[in-house]
Amino acid sequence: MTSHRPRILLVDDEPDLLAELTSLLERSGFRVLTAHHGEEALRHIAEERPDLVVLDVLMPRLDGREVLRRLRQAGDWTPVILLTRVGTPAERAFSLQEGADDYLNKPFEPMELVARIQAVLRRARPGKPLWTARRLRCGELVLDRQARKAWHAGVGLALTPRAFALLEFLMLHAGEVFTREHLLDQVWGWSYPVGPRAVDIRIAEIRKALNDDPESPRYIETVVGHGYRLIGDVEGIP
């Protein structure tokens, strides 16, 4: 029996870069599909169901952010890594809030892209399709990824967009411990000017909304000297 080789869809309007990355990813053990613009990418995603999409932002006809918006609005949570060239911190933050799983600034080292693809695929956890689920549930906590709303014991939670994105990330990686720096990189998504304290503020916001005592947590645990993790089992629900 042959092992599963993840299928990666590369979407970029630069033919030379597309050829270079295709060769690299195939040597790294992936199967590769390619598209030159957003409309072609959407057709491939619908028909081929790739395991992950590497999506350039600046493209003619249909740019990468619009492709991402259409996917998430349709409830498609195929992992997406955005490739940006000059995106501002605000633009990159907006992309992550809209549902991107990671981003990489051009120009980049090709092997860094391979590493990021491998990391995102590891998070996808075969057999536990959280990344494709519209909603996530942990105990009495339910998070709707498409509507960008959350409830606890049936009561809606008033969360800022950043706190919601942080809670979503922790639920997708339940049981894993993340440093403040890692959370800043993955959730805030840029070279942050405010420092790791920003994570503590949003964690406190989430805990207050959940009435979660940090001394005896039901959801978010502080791991002294390491960071934070979400405790409990998370399942994807329709």
TrEMBL record:
<dbReference type="InterPro" id="IPR039420">
    <property type="entry name" value="WalR-like"/>
</dbReference>
<feature type="modified residue" description="4-aspartylphosphate">
    <location>
        <position position="56"/>
    </location>
</feature>
<dbReference type="InterPro" id="IPR001867">
    <property type="entry name" value="OmpR/PhoB-type_DNA-bd"/>
</dbReference>
<keyword id="KW-0804">Transcription</keyword>
<dbReference type="GO" id="GO:0032993">
    <property type="term" value="C:protein-DNA complex"/>
</dbReference>
<protein>
    <submittedName>
        <fullName>Alkaline phosphatase synthesis transcriptional regulatory protein PhoP</fullName>
    </submittedName>
</protein>
<feature type="domain" description="Response regulatory">
    <location>
        <begin position="7"/>
        <end position="121"/>
    </location>
</feature>
<keyword id="KW-0805">Transcription regulation</keyword>
<dbReference type="InterPro" id="IPR011006">
    <property type="entry name" value="CheY-like_superfamily"/>
</dbReference>
<dbReference type="GO" id="GO:0000156">
    <property type="term" value="F:phosphorelay response regulator activity"/>
</dbReference>
<dbReference type="Pfam" id="PF00486">
    <property type="entry name" value="Trans_reg_C"/>
</dbReference>
<feature type="DNA-binding region" description="OmpR/PhoB-type">
    <location>
        <begin position="133"/>
        <end position="232"/>
    </location>
</feature>
<dbReference type="GO" id="GO:0005829">
    <property type="term" value="C:cytosol"/>
</dbReference>
<feature type="domain" description="OmpR/PhoB-type">
    <location>
        <begin position="133"/>
        <end position="232"/>
    </location>
</feature>
<keyword id="KW-0238">DNA-binding</keyword>
<dbReference type="GO" id="GO:0006355">
    <property type="term" value="P:regulation of DNA-templated transcription"/>
</dbReference>
<dbReference type="InterPro" id="IPR001789">
    <property type="entry name" value="Sig_transdc_resp-reg_receiver"/>
</dbReference>
<keyword id="KW-0902">Two-component regulatory system</keyword>
<dbReference type="GO" id="GO:0000976">
    <property type="term" value="F:transcription cis-regulatory region binding"/>
</dbReference>
<dbReference type="Pfam" id="PF00072">
    <property type="entry name" value="Response_reg"/>
</dbReference>
<keyword id="KW-0597">Phosphoprotein</keyword>
<dbReference type="InterPro" id="IPR036388">
    <property type="entry name" value="WH-like_DNA-bd_sf"/>
</dbReference>
